[in-house]
Amino acid sequence: MAPLVTVERAAAGDPQGLLVLHHGRGTDERDLIGLADALDPERRLRVVSPRGPLQVPGWPGHHWYVVPKVGYPDRASFDAARAALAELHDGLWEDSGPGPERTVLAGFSMGAVMSHAMGWSADRPTVAGVLAFSGFVPSVAGWRPSLDDRTATRAFLAHGTQDPVIDVGFGRAARDLLLAGGIDVTYRESDVVHTIDPAVLPVAAEWLATTLPRSS
C-alpha cells in the first residue's frame, strides 16, 4: 500500500508533542486540519492529518474501512487501515522528535474509531491520549481493545445526543468500557447531531494541554 497522503500544521517552534487528526467518512485529509489552531492555539504541537486509504463506489471522498453495520467495521479494510496508520505513525515518531508518549490520536466519526483502534491496540505503542468525537470502540473479529497495559493513556470522548448516524449510545458504551478498563476518561455530551460541537472545543483544548503539558 502506498504511504498515506497527509497535510500538516507545523508547530511554532520545536514541537512539544504530536497531534494526529483522522478524518470522518467520505472526506479527506483537509477536513479536520482547521481544528489545529482551536485545539492547540499556542501552536506547541506538530499536527498531521492523513487521508484515508479507501474509496468506496457510490460514496464521495475517502474512507478508513467498509461499513457493513455501524459499530462493526469490515475486517479486511479495517486491518488494512490499521497497517497503513501504523506505518504513518511510526514514521512520524521517527522524524518528529516527540514519540508515542507525547502523542494524541484524534478523530471524528470513522476517524474517531481509528483513533480508538490505534490507541488501544496491544501491538501498538502506548500513546498519551485518544481524543474521539462522535465515534465508538469498534467490534471486529480478531481485534479487541487492550486496556490493562495502557492505563497511562487518557481519553476525551464527545458525542451528540441527537446524532442520527452514530447513536449516542455508542459514545456512552465507549466511555463505560474505557472506565471499566481503568482509563482516565473525560466525557461530554451536547444537544447536537453528527458533528463536532464548537462549544466542546475549548474543553478539548484544555484536556489536550494537560495531556501534553508544556515541556520544562
Textual characterization of the structure:
This protein has a seven-stranded mixed beta sheet, with helices on both faces. The chain is an alpha/beta fold. Helices cover 28% and strands 18% of the residues. β6, α4 and β7 form a beta-alpha-beta unit. The protein is built from five helices and seven strands. It is globular, with a radius of gyration of 16 Å.
List the SSEs and their pairings.
Layout: E1 6-9, E2 18-22, H1 36-39, E3 46-50, H2 75-96, E4 103-108, H3 110-119, E5 129-133, E6 154-160, H4 168-180, E7 184-190, H5 201-211
Parallel strand pairs: 2-3, 2-4, 4-5, 5-6, 6-7
Antiparallel strand pairs: 1-3
Strand fraction: 15-25%
Global mean pLDDT: 96
Q: How would a textbook summarize the main sheet?
A: 7 strands, mixed
Which spans of ≥5 residues are poorly predicted at pLDDT below 50? none
Arrangement of strands in the largest sheet: 1-3-2-4-5-6-7
SS field, number of helical segments: 5
**C-alpha end-to-end distance:** 39 Å
Give the radius of gyration: 16 Å
Order of helices and strands: EEHEHEHEEHEH
Percent helix range: 25-40%
Shape: globular
- Report the structural category: alpha/beta
